[in-house]
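A reminder from the course coordinator: this example appears on the midterm review sheet, so study it carefully.

Given structure:
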């Protein structure tokens, strides 16, 4: 569905004249209606790759392309095809806005009448399993997990083909993390979309993701079917990550 081909992103390094290869010749394909997990420790280049895919950053080299089938569907790739949810929901939410206004903002920006958008907001909250009374609340009246559900509802308002979730559970308790993973799995099934799920926690992806790529220093160390990679990893790095994680 979406192909990333030999994509690199270089920054000027901390020392003068050096180059920081945040993402270095990464190739991967995200298929329709799958959860693709991107795993790696902090600083491995996950967020940079996510921002390249979303279009928030331009690659130094390489290509990011929708499948021909999708390109034929629409000449101009609407930005709404990819939606991003961040680790820190406060970064993407205006604290002075009510939840309903946060959720309907992308709809209104794309020309949806407000009254219709508000009806849609109720449906979107239902999709992320929050009740209607959240509509009138402010972000400060919601827990971390609830805020991530609201961020997801807003992302879903644009009916994306791909939802990029960058460490969205990292600041949450493990029990809340499990609920969010279950919700994402639900949404994958009901919405038919794909999810790029970025995490540093290898132990969370079994039974959840379809494919996984393990990233280190801007490069992909190993990639494949999740259960295969978890049960029979081929790269030394993945093996070390597995030993360090609580996954048995
Ligand atoms: N705008 C930038 N300028 C310079 N270096 C950057 C920039 N963005 C990210 N980096 C560096 O690129 C590397 C990868 O960062 P990042 O993609 O945030 O990793 P991750 O999300 O896996 O923690 C890090 O070493 C980071 O310091
Ligand atoms: Mg990151």
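Designed residues:
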């Amino acid at each position: 569905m979406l192909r990333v081909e030999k994509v690199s992103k270089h920054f000027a390094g901390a020392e003068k004249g050096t180059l920081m290869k945040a993402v270095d010749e990464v190739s991967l394909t995200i298929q329709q209606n799958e959860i693709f997990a991107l795993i790696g420790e902090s600083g491995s280049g996950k967020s940079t790759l996510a921002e390249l895919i979303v279009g928030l950053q331009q690659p130094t080299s390489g290509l990011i392309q929708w499948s021909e089938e999708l390109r034929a569907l629409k000449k101009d790739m609407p930005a709404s095809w990819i939606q991003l949810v961040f680790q820190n929901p406060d970064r993407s939410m205006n604290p002075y806005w009510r939840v309903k206004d946060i959720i309907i903002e992308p709809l209104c920006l794309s020309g949806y009448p407000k009254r219709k958008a508000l009806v849609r907001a109720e449906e979107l909250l239902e999709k992320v399993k929050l009740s209607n009374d959240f509509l009138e609340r402010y972000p400060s009246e919601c827990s971390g997990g609830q805020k991530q559900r609201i961020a997801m509802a807003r992302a879903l308002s644009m009916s994306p083909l791909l939802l990029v979730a960058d460490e969205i559970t990292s600041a949450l308790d493990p029990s809340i993390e499990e609920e969010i993973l279950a919700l994402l799995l639900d949404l994958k099934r009901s919405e038919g979309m794909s999810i790029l799920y970025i995490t540093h926690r290898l132990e969370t992806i079994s039974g959840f993701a379809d494919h996984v790529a393990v990233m280190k220093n801007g490069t992909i160390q190993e990639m494949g079917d999740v259960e295969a990679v978890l049960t029979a990893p081929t790269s030394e790095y993945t093996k070390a990550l597995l030993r360090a994680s609580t996954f048995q």
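Helices lie at 46-54, 68-73, 99-109, 114-127, 144-156, 174-191, 226-231, 236-244. Residues 11, 20, 22, 40, 42-48 surround adenosine-5'-diphosphate (ligand 1) (CB under 6 Å).
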